[in-house]
Specification:
By secondary structure, the chain is an alpha/beta fold. It is 37% helix and 23% strand. Strands 1, 2, 3, 4, 5 and 6 form a six-stranded mixed beta sheet that branches. The protein has a two-stranded antiparallel sheet with strand order 7-8. Strand 5, helix 5 (116-127) and strand 6 form a beta-alpha-beta unit.
């Protein structure tokens, strides 16, 4: 089973990155290995000019093509997903997500942007062929606060929603494709 995590924040340290990391932990706990594609690390010039001749962009697009499950984490800016994600999605072929399961995660300043996933991002993903959607997780800034060490941590309510989403991903993976669950201490909600 190939699970690709797409980090769509332009920032190195971000709430959406923390949300994606927490989702990855839950998937790993169930024995699903993941790979991460950080869109901010793609060459900006090639990305903006849709230069699919660029080796790094070709590799990024190939990783999407190879994955069976895509987990996308994006910040919400002005009621829309990140421009970085938009530019990348524009490079995918029209059927670039056909047959794939997609799980969307997003963070925003307040709950006012909660529907940005359903009304902004999901229609684009569907247009690219995605038909199997895991229940999206949206978190406001207050739900992913910094701890004493200055690291972002997901709150209990978001952690429990991530468990539900990870379970939905697992339900779509045939048992022979899963590794044995990782023996770790129980996840802290």
């Amino acid at each position: 089973m190939s699970v690709l995590l797409i980090a769509a924040s332009p920032s190195v340290h971000s709430r959406s990155g923390a949300l994606l990391s927490a989702a990855a932990q839950r998937l790993h706990h169930h024995g699903l290995p993941t790979r991460t594609l950080k869109l901010r690390d793609l060459p900006a010039q090639a990305l903006l000019h849709a230069d699919i001749g660029d080796a790094t962009l070709r590799e990024a697009l190939a990783s999407v093509a190879e994955a069976k499950t895509i987990v996308i984490a994006t910040p919400i800016y002005k009621a829309a997903y990140s421009g970085l994600l938009k530019v990348f999605l524009d490079l995918l072929p029209q059927d670039g997500l056909a047959g794939k399961t997609v799980w969307t995660l997003a963070t925003g300043g307040s709950l006012a942007h909660l529907l940005a996933l359903d009304y902004g991002l999901l229609p684009v993903l569907s247009a690219l062929g995605a038909r199997s959607h895991i229940d999206g997780v949206y978190a406001s800034d207050a739900q992913i606060a910094k701890d004493a060490a200055g690291e972002y941590r997901v709150g209990d309510d978001i952690a429990s929603r991530l468990l539900v989403g990870a379970s939905q991903v697992i339900d779509r993976v045939p048992a022979p494709e899963r590794a044995a669950p990782v023996a770790r201490p129980a996840l802290v909600l």
